[in-house]
Amino acid sequence: MFEASVVRIYATAQAPDYDVPWQARTPMSSTGSGVTIDSEHVLTGAHVVAHANFIQVQKVSDPNKYVARPVGISHDMDLALLRVEDARFAAKQHAVAELGELPQLRDRVSVVGFPVGGEEVSITEGVVSRIELQRYSHSQRYLLAVTVDAAINEGNSGGPVFHEGKVVGIAFQTLRDAEAVGEMVPVTLIRRFIEGIRAGRSQHVPSLSLRSQSLENPMLKRASGLSPEQTGVLVLGAEFGGSAHGVLEPGDVLLEVDGYQVEDNGTIRYLDRVRTRFEVVLADHFVGDQLAVAVMRGGERRELSLELKEKCYLVSRSACEESPRYFVYGGLVFQPLSRGYLETWARWWDKAPPEFLFHYYSGVRTEAQREVVVLTQILADELTMGYEDHSNEVVRRVNGVPPRDLADLVERLTTAGDVVEVEVACGARLLFETAKVREASSRILERYRVSRARSPSL
Fold this sequence. Notes:
- This protein is mainly beta.
- It has 3 domains: 205 residues, Beta Barrel (Thrombin, subunit H), CATH 2.40.10.120; 98 residues, Pdz3 Domain; 121 residues, N-terminal domain of MutM-like DNA repair proteins (Alpha-Beta Barrel).
- The chain is 14% helix and 35% strand.
- It is built from 8 helices and 26 strands.
- The strands form 5 sheets. The chain has a 6-stranded antiparallel barrel with strand order 1-2-3-6-5-4. Strands 7-8-9-12-11-10 form a 6-stranded antiparallel β-barrel.
- It is flat, with a radius of gyration of 25 Å.
């Protein structure tokens, strides 16, 4: 039976602490599910092994646990490939799973794994109800997903979804406000993920980093230079450093992407089966590939090519691949605004400072501002007396100049003259004598057990 290829995954993870960015949180243990795809490799979800320091896998028929290590992780696609180097694992391998094809709507599938509350493998059957772009909760990326009317419970996540005895997806999340409805990473993304590992390609899913508007309004469509028969979306702008930056221009109309005609509502007929957003084609390519697009510019059709790059955000969404970046200066703790830092607030989407949420949802990355730098904490000291009320504020200027990103702020602070002035969002000014900052630095770091004044990447 196909369930013989399913394994339970035990992970001990240590996530970073954005409240105290120079240290990590207490290690936590969790379980998930996975599936063997050959004698030594296990496929699972990236969130199952995120921040993991130690991973073990256990087969259905074997009481032993075997140490595994990641050989490839795509946090964008929420997929991870583990390798078990213990020869006993391969010797006792009774079944491996085979990858199938993208299922059809109304196909019956089986979600297999080890949900909490029991020790034996669990099989839940459901029907494919939808195939379209969905937001992946682990990475906040919009990628192709398959919705099934089968529950995906804690511990079951990362397990395989079978159709006719073959793996057609990896279970990864449950839809909020819906009963017994789950989603899986489709086999099309799994194949691309494995191909990328074998070819040594980046496991980031590229993005156009493009802002666009639908042309469903007839007047807007005419004003954009399209005839009633033509379709496309209006380009509003591109994030600095993204794939479309410097190639597509505001006012362009995007007509085709990767050979697909873009409709006025921003959708394409993907694989001649699924109507969904045109961004779906990005997951068919790797970072560094060329992507063909057609645009209408100044009344003329133009064929262009984009070099695909990683997704560019003003405020980063995922914190799974790096430790927090920070800088401590005279008791002031600076960090770039990120999803990880926002999550230090309970119900962050409702309770975090409104300015932070505006940057997260609507901020645009430009050459002049590539990150939002925040004064996240003020360590009490003689040097910082009177400044205590100005933590959790965006840094507006350092010595009169807006910082481009955290690295730029560090450069300006460490090369300043006799006096440093930091201006924050409320208009408050924090002044320091640089000589006194140098004298106080070791004292402050020692008092608050800060191992180093800046993160290694700085």
